[in-house]
Specification:
heterodimer, A: about 325 residues, 60s Ribosomal Protein L30, Chain: A, Phosphoribosyl-aminoimidazole Synthetase, Chain A, domain 2, 2 domains, seven-stranded mixed β-sheet, four-stranded mixed β-sheet, B: alpha/beta, Rossmann fold, six-stranded mixed β-sheet, 11 strands, about 35% helix, globular, PurM-like_N_sf (chain A), Hydrogenase expression/formation protein HypE (chain A), PurM-like_C_dom (chain A), PurM-like_C_sf (chain A)
Chain lengths: ~325, ~375
């Protein structure tokens, strides 16, 4: 089996081979092939610009891989501010010893998602580090998109309805279950996906949310607490409306996690004017039947998120804190 | 049967809640011994479903909460030795010692690993014959049998590089210690479920008889807990002192005999210093003398000078039911889950941590 060697990051012939024969094979477009020091792009109007780094373990998991996440993640970040994603950059930090097969699989899935979303990967960088200096492969992607309708967190208003585009915590649960230390058998698949089609479908139907945020690391609780703190608003959630798959619930119960704290990679939260909320829900449900209206902004003071359980008891939904560690007994 | 949703059934919960409130005529101080129950009570808001006569007292049954600074300091010392792989269960990483935590020691470059199963330490020891591998064993009767299995495997395989920093504790001893304190006002107990799977329900009969207090062993789901509380209310009203096994789907009268045999084979009862409660005679277990060659405290130098607990912390009073987390002056201010000062804030299953997370204020 052919493996990545330190020399593949050395700037010489091997690196040239890796880039020209493997990376360009998957990220094939005229801008990239210009091989200038920077990609030269034409964009008119307001643009959105975002970056993120991906260090997920394991790099292949049920429902995706680190390549798919790295492209979807940046596409989704652009979509969340109302932009149509256009161009991505990619930076690879590869651990010496990663097999060509694995790298090719990652490139292939990045290429597939980028093509499906009509996004070009126009510049990039590859570094190879000695064994043990990183965990197989780290990927950074940055993206530029054209603003279609600007969506900003600061626009959330009192009485806005809070919607979610699907069930929560699937990606976080898949990753926990797949890690070597646990090795739980599960049919669960990550929700990893691009949100571009969904956001564009909302816009095409003249639905313009007050705010949108994909609930990645920190999960639903992080998004809502950020919104509550930033806008000094109080959000009331109805726990019964938040869909959690049985398997996800089982993993959470087993390890002592809350599904609200676990990551999603293709599920987003929306704050929507009450008059648009039902129509928005219909559109979201076309993509995931578990989409629902989960709560509303009930006050423009207090900066807090309250979760009402099915028995009518309320509690705060806190920011997730510290490292997620499983309980002992 | 759905082992999660059926035990969270809304109608059943409302029925039990109504019955408890109807039958509860006089104040009842219920101690939930286990931190898992504290967590569930706060998470599901059960304290708001049982009426004003029920007062919950959060007991000493969280293995992380009861770990004293001195044991953590010793663990950090062991983990900081050269050529050592130090392993433990995850929650222990953030428990504060006098000046540091295992998590901080890990960030300084020491090889400290969180295990999901104690048995994983066997493979680590096999894979690293040139390193000394130390397992920081903690927990009540729930986790002790697994440590016994690891000890047995280590002996069978003749592993020369695996050692044990044993800090297992028992449930009955701290319960008795609390009840022998005249300042404690407990009328009934919610018995631990996971512990009881191992010990069996019978071990609580003498406690119920000696202190004339009813005990209901319950599962962790809302229906389990409310069913257990209903029984305690009925017993309180009828002045009976029986052990009610609500968690029959897992707990037998005699418990898990095989697990108990394994514990007896490798462990002996010892005294143990409980964080917040002080030294409790017969409160812990340690390896039997003939296995001292596996015992880290005999093989390595574990002596450390530990700082005393903060005077501002009132965890001891909280564990005795004489104070609530809100009564503590440092609660949620200096003492919070990121910077736990007292034992009850350390683990997510501690009383203060549960109050901090789920009920900082009434909403």
């Amino acid at each position: 089996m052919k493996n990545i060697l330190l020399s593949h990051g050395g700037g010489g012939e091997e690196m040239n081979e890796l880039i020209n024969e493997l990376i360009f094979k998957y990220f094939d477009n005229e801008i990239l092939k210009e091989t200038n020091d920077s990609a030269i792009l034409k964009i008119d109007g307001e643009i959105a610009f975002s970056t993120d780094s991906y260090v997920v373990t394991p790099i292949f998991f049920s429902g995706g891989d680190i390549g798919k996440i790295s492209v979807c993640g940046t596409i989704n970040d652009l979509c969340m501010v109302g932009a149509k994603p256009l161009y991505l950059s990619v930076g690879f930090i590869i651990e010496e010893g990663l097999s060509f097969d694995e790298f090719e699989k990652i490139l292939s899935s990045m290429s597939k998602i980028a093509k499906e979303n009509d996004v070009k990967i126009v510049c990039g960088d590859t570094k190879v580090v000695p064994k043990g200096k990183c965990d197989k492969i780290f990927i950074n992607t940055s993206g530029i998109g054209k603003i279609i309708h600007k969506i900003e967190t600061k626009n959330i208003k009192n009485r806005a309805k809070i919607l979610i585009s699907g069930d929560i915590a699937r990606h976080g649960s898949v990753i926990v279950a797949a890690r070597d230390e646990i090795n739980l058998e599960s049919d669960l698949k990550s929700d990893c996906r691009s949100l571009k089609d969904i956001v564009m479908a909302l816009f095409e139907n003249n639905i313009y949310p007050q705010a949108m945020r994909d609930a990645t690391r920190g999960g639903l609780s992080a998004v809502l607490n950020e919104w509550a703190n930033f806008n000094k608003i109080e959000i009331l959630l109805n726990e019964e409306s938040i869909k959690v798959q049985d398997e996800v619930m089982g993993i959470c119960e087993l390890l002592g996690f809350e599904p609200y704290d676990l990551a999603n990679e293709g599920t987003f939260v929306l704050a929507i004017d009450e008059k648009d909320s039902k129509k928005a829900l219909e559109i979201l449900k076309n993509f995931n039947e578990n989409a629902s209206i989960i709560g509303e902004v009930i006050s423009d003071k207090n900066s807090r998120v309250i979760l009402k359980n099915p028995y009518g008891v309320k509690r705060f939904l806190e920011y997730p804190k510290g490292e997620l560690l499983p309980r002992i007994c | 049967m759905d082992l999660i949703n059926d035990f969270r059934d809304k109608d059943l919960i409302f029925s039990l809640s109504n019955l408890i409130q109807k039958k509860s005529k006089k104040p009842l101080n219920i101690m939930e011994i286990c931190g898992g129950h504290t967590h569930s009570i706060m998470k599901f808001g059960i304290h708001k479903l049982v009426g004003k006569n029920i007062n919950f007292i959060h007991g000493p049954g969280c293995p992380v909460c009861v770990m004293p600074r001195s044991k953590i300091d010793a663990a950090i010392k062991l983990a900081s030795m050269d050529n050592v792989i130090f392993t433990t269960l995850a929650d222990m990483l953030r428990v504060p010692g006098s000046t540091s935590t295992l998590q901080k020691a890990r960030s300084q470059g020491h090889d400290i690993r969180a295990l999901y199963s104690p048995l994983d330490v066997i493979q680590i020891a096999k894979d690293n014959p040139d390193k000394k591998v130390i397992f920081f064993a903690i927990g009540f009767e729930t986790t002790t049998p697994m440590t016994a299995v690891v000890v047995e495997k280590a002996i069978e395989l003749g592993l020369k590089n695996l050692f044990f920093h044993i800090n297992h504790v028992t449930v009955p001893a701290p319960v008795r210690a609390l009840m022998n304190d005249e300042n404690v006002k407990i009328d009934a107990f919610l018995g631990p479920s996971h512990v009881s799977v191992i010990t069996g329900s019978k071990i609580y009969e003498s406690i119920a008889n000696d202190y004339k207090k009813p005990i209901a062993i319950s599962g962790f789901e809302p229906v389990d807990i409310l069913d257990g509380i209903l029984n305690l209310v009925e017993q309180g009203e009828n002045e009976t002192y029986k052990v009610y096994n609500q968690y029959k789907r897992a707990v037998k009268l005699e418990g898990n005999l095989k697990a108990k045999e394994l514990i007896d084979k490798y462990f002996k009862i010892c005294d143990f210093e409980f964080r917040g409660l002080g030294n409790i005679p017969n409160g812990g277990v340690d390896l039997k003398d003939k296995y001292s060659y596996l015992n880290a405290k005999f093989v390595f130098d574990c002596n450390v000078e530990s700082k005393k607990e903060s005077k501002a912390c009132i965890c001891g009073e909280i564990l005795k039911g004489r104070a609530k987390p809100y009564d503590c002056k440092i609660f949620s201010k200096v003492c919070n889950p990121q910077n736990p000062i007292g034992s009850c804030m350390v683990s997510s299953e501690g009383a203060c941590a549960a109050y901090y997370k789920y009920a900082k204020e009434n909403v």
